[in-house]
């Protein structure tokens, strides 16, 4: 009798709702939270006396949970994960260094060496033989490696 009144009462639905909301922190998938919202809603409706029979409580729980799951999940997923804009397939000059002048710090051996740009040391590569102390220009950037040349690139491209 006591178990039946507990299962039919608002306390069960509120406890189930909070348990489902908390479970989302431990097993994230953005599913349990909507069933938790459904259980909390049924618990509140039962507490206010709007719903009283167990069959109606179960029906409302199922309908509210599924409507929330299928209706809001896509919007909430986008909100929780954030949006990422499409990036171009080519390497972009995100930091604005293409066309910048650099100082050669080490002689380029086998096409690689070190340069200084804005006070920071960068790994660089070049098809031209560069010597310490010379000036070069950044013509491209590939990850954290600068591509440099002794001729200044055209910035109008």
UniProtKB/TrEMBL annotation:
Keyword field contains Transcription: no
Coiled-coil annotated spans: none
InterPro entries, per the entry: Membrane_assoc_protease (IPR052165), NA-bd_OB-fold (IPR012340), NfeD-like_C (IPR002810)
Bilayer disposition of the protein: Multi-pass membrane protein
GO CC term, one of those recorded: plasma membrane
Subcellular location: Membrane
Gene3D superfamilies, per database record: Nucleic acid-binding proteins
Keywords: Membrane, Transmembrane, Transmembrane helix
Pfam families per record: NfeD
Domain of life of the source: Bacteria
Transmembrane segments: 54-72
NfeD-like C-terminal domain location: 97-148
Record's protein name: NfeD-like C-terminal domain-containing protein
Record organism: Halopseudomonas bauzanensis
